[in-house]
Amino acid sequence: MSSEQKKLMKNLLLDMILLGQDVCSAINRSNSFKVKCSELGMRVNRLLLMLRSLPRFLTSAAPFYLLSVNSIVVKLEDNFKVAQRVVHNCKPRRRLCRFFTGHIRISTDFQELFHVLDASITEMEWLVSHYEPQSKDRGSMYSPTVLVWSCIATVEMGPSLDDRIEAANRLASLVQQKDFEYKQLIFEGGLPSLIKLLKENSPVAHIAAANALCLLANEEEEKSGTIMKELIHTIASRLSRTSSRCGQKQAADLVADIAERNPELKLLRKRR
Asked: Cα separation of 198 and 193, whole Å?
Protein backbone atom coordinates (compact mmCIF):
# COMPACT_ATOMS: atom_id res chain seq x y z
CA MET A 1 0.00 0.00 0.00
CA SER A 2 1.38 3.40 -1.02
CA SER A 3 2.15 6.27 1.34
CA GLU A 4 -0.89 8.10 -0.01
CA GLN A 5 -3.13 5.14 0.82
CA LYS A 6 -1.65 4.95 4.30
CA LYS A 7 -2.36 8.65 4.74
CA LEU A 8 -5.98 8.11 3.71
CA MET A 9 -6.20 5.22 6.16
CA LYS A 10 -4.87 7.37 8.99
CA ASN A 11 -7.43 10.05 8.14
CA LEU A 12 -10.15 7.40 8.25
CA LEU A 13 -8.98 6.30 11.69
CA LEU A 14 -8.98 9.91 12.87
CA ASP A 15 -12.55 10.32 11.63
CA MET A 16 -13.56 7.16 13.51
CA ILE A 17 -11.94 8.44 16.70
CA LEU A 18 -13.80 11.74 16.42
CA LEU A 19 -17.05 9.91 15.73
CA GLY A 20 -16.51 7.68 18.76
CA GLN A 21 -15.81 10.73 20.90
CA ASP A 22 -19.08 12.27 19.70
CA VAL A 23 -20.89 9.12 20.84
CA CYS A 24 -19.26 9.41 24.28
CA SER A 25 -20.28 13.08 24.52
CA ALA A 26 -23.87 12.16 23.65
CA ILE A 27 -23.81 9.46 26.33
CA ASN A 28 -22.62 11.97 28.93
CA ARG A 29 -25.46 14.34 28.04
CA SER A 30 -28.13 11.66 28.20
CA ASN A 31 -30.47 11.71 31.21
CA SER A 32 -32.27 8.45 30.44
CA PHE A 33 -31.29 4.78 30.31
CA LYS A 34 -28.27 5.47 32.51
CA VAL A 35 -27.32 1.81 32.94
CA LYS A 36 -27.58 1.03 29.23
CA CYS A 37 -25.68 4.18 28.31
CA SER A 38 -22.97 3.28 30.79
CA GLU A 39 -22.58 -0.16 29.19
CA LEU A 40 -22.47 1.47 25.78
CA GLY A 41 -19.85 3.94 26.96
CA MET A 42 -17.56 1.14 28.15
CA ARG A 43 -17.74 -0.55 24.75
CA VAL A 44 -17.12 2.66 22.81
CA ASN A 45 -14.18 3.62 25.04
CA ARG A 46 -12.67 0.16 24.54
CA LEU A 47 -12.92 0.64 20.78
CA LEU A 48 -11.48 4.15 20.99
CA LEU A 49 -8.49 2.86 22.93
CA MET A 50 -7.68 0.40 20.16
CA LEU A 51 -8.40 2.89 17.38
CA ARG A 52 -5.88 5.31 18.88
CA SER A 53 -3.20 2.62 18.79
CA LEU A 54 -3.73 1.67 15.14
CA PRO A 55 -1.96 4.62 13.41
CA ARG A 56 1.46 3.47 14.63
CA PHE A 57 0.59 -0.02 13.41
CA LEU A 58 0.06 1.31 9.88
CA THR A 59 3.67 2.44 9.55
CA SER A 60 4.99 -1.12 9.72
CA ALA A 61 2.01 -3.28 8.82
CA ALA A 62 2.07 -5.70 5.91
CA PRO A 63 -0.19 -4.65 2.99
CA PHE A 64 -2.53 -7.52 3.79
CA TYR A 65 -3.30 -6.19 7.27
CA LEU A 66 -4.00 -2.73 5.89
CA LEU A 67 -6.80 -4.29 3.85
CA SER A 68 -8.26 -5.89 6.95
CA VAL A 69 -7.99 -2.60 8.87
CA ASN A 70 -10.02 -0.86 6.18
CA SER A 71 -12.66 -3.60 6.14
CA ILE A 72 -13.08 -3.62 9.91
CA VAL A 73 -12.94 0.15 10.47
CA VAL A 74 -15.50 0.92 7.75
CA LYS A 75 -17.95 -1.43 9.45
CA LEU A 76 -17.21 0.25 12.78
CA GLU A 77 -18.26 3.60 11.30
CA ASP A 78 -21.76 2.23 10.70
CA ASN A 79 -21.91 0.90 14.26
CA PHE A 80 -20.89 4.24 15.76
CA LYS A 81 -23.58 6.01 13.73
CA VAL A 82 -26.18 3.56 15.01
CA ALA A 83 -24.94 4.27 18.54
CA GLN A 84 -25.46 7.99 17.97
CA ARG A 85 -29.02 7.38 16.85
CA VAL A 86 -29.84 5.10 19.79
CA VAL A 87 -28.47 7.56 22.34
CA HIS A 88 -30.30 10.43 20.65
CA ASN A 89 -33.56 8.52 21.10
CA CYS A 90 -32.99 8.25 24.85
CA LYS A 91 -35.23 11.15 25.74
CA PRO A 92 -37.81 11.29 28.54
CA ARG A 93 -41.35 10.50 27.38
CA ARG A 94 -44.21 12.48 28.89
CA ARG A 95 -47.17 10.30 28.02
CA LEU A 96 -47.36 7.00 29.87
CA CYS A 97 -48.24 4.76 26.89
CA ARG A 98 -45.58 6.39 24.76
CA PHE A 99 -43.10 5.91 27.60
CA PHE A 100 -43.61 2.14 27.82
CA THR A 101 -43.62 1.67 24.05
CA GLY A 102 -40.48 3.74 23.63
CA HIS A 103 -38.78 2.04 26.56
CA ILE A 104 -39.23 -1.42 25.06
CA ARG A 105 -38.09 -0.31 21.62
CA ILE A 106 -35.00 1.51 22.87
CA SER A 107 -34.05 -1.41 25.14
CA THR A 108 -34.17 -3.68 22.09
CA ASP A 109 -32.08 -1.19 20.12
CA PHE A 110 -29.45 -1.22 22.86
CA GLN A 111 -29.24 -5.02 22.86
CA GLU A 112 -28.81 -5.14 19.09
CA LEU A 113 -26.21 -2.38 19.30
CA PHE A 114 -24.28 -4.22 22.03
CA HIS A 115 -24.18 -7.30 19.80
CA VAL A 116 -22.59 -5.53 16.82
CA LEU A 117 -20.22 -3.52 19.01
CA ASP A 118 -19.03 -6.69 20.75
CA ALA A 119 -18.28 -8.12 17.30
CA SER A 120 -16.36 -4.94 16.43
CA ILE A 121 -14.38 -5.23 19.67
CA THR A 122 -13.42 -8.80 18.80
CA GLU A 123 -12.36 -7.73 15.31
CA MET A 124 -10.28 -4.85 16.65
CA GLU A 125 -8.68 -7.11 19.26
CA TRP A 126 -7.70 -9.47 16.47
CA LEU A 127 -5.96 -6.60 14.68
CA VAL A 128 -4.23 -5.38 17.82
CA SER A 129 -3.04 -8.89 18.68
CA HIS A 130 -0.81 -8.88 15.58
CA TYR A 131 1.38 -6.04 16.77
CA GLU A 132 0.97 -6.04 20.54
CA PRO A 133 2.23 -9.40 21.92
CA GLN A 134 0.59 -8.78 25.29
CA SER A 135 -2.81 -8.60 23.62
CA LYS A 136 -4.65 -11.87 23.36
CA ASP A 137 -6.64 -12.85 20.29
CA ARG A 138 -10.07 -13.95 21.49
CA GLY A 139 -10.46 -16.30 18.56
CA SER A 140 -12.52 -16.36 15.42
CA MET A 141 -15.63 -18.06 16.77
CA TYR A 142 -17.25 -14.80 17.84
CA SER A 143 -17.01 -12.91 14.56
CA PRO A 144 -17.45 -14.02 10.94
CA THR A 145 -15.15 -11.18 9.88
CA VAL A 146 -12.32 -12.39 12.11
CA LEU A 147 -12.87 -15.97 10.96
CA VAL A 148 -12.43 -15.00 7.31
CA TRP A 149 -9.52 -12.63 7.84
CA SER A 150 -7.71 -15.19 10.02
CA CYS A 151 -7.94 -17.74 7.21
CA ILE A 152 -6.81 -15.21 4.62
CA ALA A 153 -3.89 -14.19 6.84
CA THR A 154 -2.77 -17.81 7.07
CA VAL A 155 -3.05 -18.31 3.30
CA GLU A 156 -0.98 -15.17 2.80
CA MET A 157 1.73 -15.65 5.41
CA GLY A 158 1.18 -18.93 7.26
CA PRO A 159 4.20 -20.46 9.03
CA SER A 160 4.25 -23.45 6.68
CA LEU A 161 2.92 -24.42 3.27
CA ASP A 162 0.71 -27.06 4.88
CA ASP A 163 -0.89 -24.37 7.07
CA ARG A 164 -1.52 -22.21 4.02
CA ILE A 165 -3.09 -25.12 2.14
CA GLU A 166 -5.34 -25.97 5.08
CA ALA A 167 -6.45 -22.33 5.31
CA ALA A 168 -7.25 -22.29 1.58
CA ASN A 169 -9.41 -25.37 2.04
CA ARG A 170 -11.14 -23.61 4.93
CA LEU A 171 -11.86 -20.61 2.72
CA ALA A 172 -13.34 -22.92 0.10
CA SER A 173 -15.60 -24.35 2.79
CA LEU A 174 -16.69 -20.84 3.85
CA VAL A 175 -17.54 -19.91 0.26
CA GLN A 176 -19.85 -22.92 0.08
CA GLN A 177 -21.80 -21.71 3.12
CA LYS A 178 -23.55 -19.17 0.87
CA ASP A 179 -22.92 -16.35 3.34
CA PHE A 180 -22.76 -13.01 1.51
CA GLU A 181 -20.36 -11.46 4.05
CA TYR A 182 -17.98 -14.41 3.78
CA LYS A 183 -17.89 -14.20 -0.01
CA GLN A 184 -17.37 -10.44 -0.10
CA LEU A 185 -14.49 -10.56 2.37
CA ILE A 186 -12.84 -13.50 0.63
CA PHE A 187 -13.05 -11.77 -2.73
CA GLU A 188 -11.77 -8.43 -1.40
CA GLY A 189 -8.92 -9.77 0.71
CA GLY A 190 -8.39 -13.41 -0.18
CA LEU A 191 -8.15 -13.34 -3.96
CA PRO A 192 -4.51 -12.10 -4.12
CA SER A 193 -3.47 -14.58 -1.41
CA LEU A 194 -5.11 -17.53 -3.17
CA ILE A 195 -3.49 -16.58 -6.48
CA LYS A 196 -0.15 -16.33 -4.68
CA LEU A 197 -0.67 -19.83 -3.28
CA LEU A 198 -1.56 -21.06 -6.77
CA LYS A 199 1.95 -20.11 -7.90
CA GLU A 200 3.71 -22.23 -5.27
CA ASN A 201 5.69 -25.20 -6.51
CA SER A 202 3.30 -27.73 -5.01
CA PRO A 203 0.52 -29.69 -6.75
CA VAL A 204 -1.42 -29.91 -3.47
CA ALA A 205 -1.24 -26.12 -3.06
CA HIS A 206 -2.36 -25.68 -6.67
CA ILE A 207 -5.42 -27.85 -6.12
CA ALA A 208 -6.40 -26.15 -2.85
CA ALA A 209 -6.03 -22.64 -4.29
CA ALA A 210 -7.70 -23.48 -7.60
CA ASN A 211 -10.63 -25.16 -5.87
CA ALA A 212 -11.26 -22.10 -3.67
CA LEU A 213 -10.92 -19.77 -6.65
CA CYS A 214 -13.32 -21.79 -8.78
CA LEU A 215 -15.92 -21.93 -6.02
CA LEU A 216 -15.59 -18.19 -5.52
CA ALA A 217 -15.93 -17.57 -9.26
CA ASN A 218 -19.04 -19.71 -9.40
CA GLU A 219 -20.63 -17.76 -6.53
CA GLU A 220 -19.58 -14.34 -7.79
CA GLU A 221 -20.74 -14.35 -11.41
CA GLU A 222 -20.07 -10.64 -11.90
CA LYS A 223 -16.48 -11.07 -10.73
CA SER A 224 -15.83 -14.52 -12.14
CA GLY A 225 -14.01 -13.08 -15.16
CA THR A 226 -11.32 -11.54 -12.97
CA ILE A 227 -10.84 -14.74 -11.00
CA MET A 228 -10.74 -17.06 -13.99
CA LYS A 229 -8.42 -14.74 -15.91
CA GLU A 230 -5.81 -15.05 -13.16
CA LEU A 231 -6.39 -18.77 -12.81
CA ILE A 232 -6.09 -19.48 -16.51
CA HIS A 233 -3.04 -17.23 -16.86
CA THR A 234 -1.21 -19.12 -14.11
CA ILE A 235 -2.08 -22.52 -15.56
CA ALA A 236 -1.21 -21.41 -19.09
CA SER A 237 2.22 -20.26 -17.96
CA ARG A 238 2.91 -23.80 -16.78
CA LEU A 239 1.71 -25.24 -20.08
CA SER A 240 4.04 -23.05 -22.12
CA ARG A 241 6.71 -24.58 -24.29
CA THR A 242 9.42 -23.30 -21.99
CA SER A 243 7.98 -25.16 -19.02
CA SER A 244 9.37 -28.51 -18.00
CA ARG A 245 7.43 -31.65 -18.83
CA CYS A 246 6.80 -32.11 -15.14
CA GLY A 247 5.33 -28.60 -14.91
CA GLN A 248 3.18 -29.18 -17.97
CA LYS A 249 1.87 -32.45 -16.56
CA GLN A 250 1.06 -30.80 -13.23
CA ALA A 251 -0.83 -28.04 -15.04
CA ALA A 252 -2.80 -30.54 -17.11
CA ASP A 253 -3.61 -32.55 -13.99
CA LEU A 254 -4.73 -29.34 -12.30
CA VAL A 255 -7.15 -28.54 -15.13
CA ALA A 256 -8.59 -32.06 -14.90
CA ASP A 257 -8.91 -31.78 -11.13
CA ILE A 258 -10.65 -28.40 -11.39
CA ALA A 259 -13.17 -29.83 -13.84
CA GLU A 260 -13.81 -32.83 -11.60
CA ARG A 261 -14.22 -30.80 -8.41
CA ASN A 262 -16.31 -28.03 -9.97
CA PRO A 263 -18.62 -29.53 -12.61
CA GLU A 264 -21.09 -26.73 -11.95
CA LEU A 265 -18.64 -23.99 -12.90
CA LYS A 266 -20.24 -22.30 -15.90
CA LEU A 267 -17.02 -21.04 -17.42
CA LEU A 268 -15.52 -24.50 -17.38
CA ARG A 269 -18.60 -26.02 -18.96
CA LYS A 270 -18.36 -23.55 -21.82
CA ARG A 271 -14.76 -24.55 -22.44
CA ARG A 272 -15.45 -28.29 -22.60
From this structure: 9
Number of compact structural domains in the chain: 2
- One-letter amino acid at 71 equals S
Tell me the residue type at 45: N
Determine the structural domain holding residue 190 and report its residue range. Answer: 144-271
| Cα–Cα distances in angstroms (integers) from residue 248 to residues 66, 176, 205, 236, in the given order | 36, 30, 16, 9
Per-residue pLDDT tens digits of the chain, which is 272 residues long: 567 777 788 888 899 999 999 999 999 988 888 899 999 999 999 999 999 888 777 766 666 667 778 888 888 999 999 999 999 887 655 444 444 445 667 888 899 999 999 989 988 888 887 666 555 544 444 567 788 888 888 898 888 999 999 999 998 888 887 666 667 777 777 888 888 898 888 888 888 888 888 877 776 665 666 666 667 666 666 555 445 666 566 666 666 666 565 555 444 444 44
Dihedral angle sign, alpha carbons of residues 125, 126, 132, 133: positive
pTM of the complete model:
0.69
CATH assignment of the domain containing 206:
1.25.10.10
Identify whether 84 is part of a domain.
Answer: yes
